[in-house]
From TrEMBL:
This is Uncharacterized protein. InterPro entries: Geranylgeranyl_reductase. GO terms for biological process: chlorophyll biosynthetic process. GO terms for molecular function: geranylgeranyl reductase activity. PANTHER family: GERANYLGERANYL DIPHOSPHATE REDUCTASE, GERANYLGERANYL DIPHOSPHATE REDUCTASE, CHLOROPLASTIC. One of its GO terms (cellular component) is chloroplast thylakoid membrane. It comes from Platanthera zijinensis. It comes from the Eukaryota.
Length: 54
């Protein structure tokens, strides 16, 4: 996520202007979907690691 240009732009703009900047709703939705996908992948990875450990 940190490599995503949209994330970097929003983070920099929010830091620079010291207030929450409004983003593009479509890009916000894409970011939310990517975040959920990352959580699902992490959960699946955790389950597989638990199987290997036992």
């Amino acid at each position: 996520m940190c490599g995503d240009n949209y994330v970097q732009k929003m983070t920099f703009d929010n830091y620079l202007y010291k207030r929450v900047m409004l983003g593009n709703p479509l890009d916000d939705l894409k970011l939310a979907i990517n975040t959920l996908g990352s959580l699902v992948r992490a959960s699946a990875f955790k389950r597989e690691m638990a199987k290997l450990a036992s």
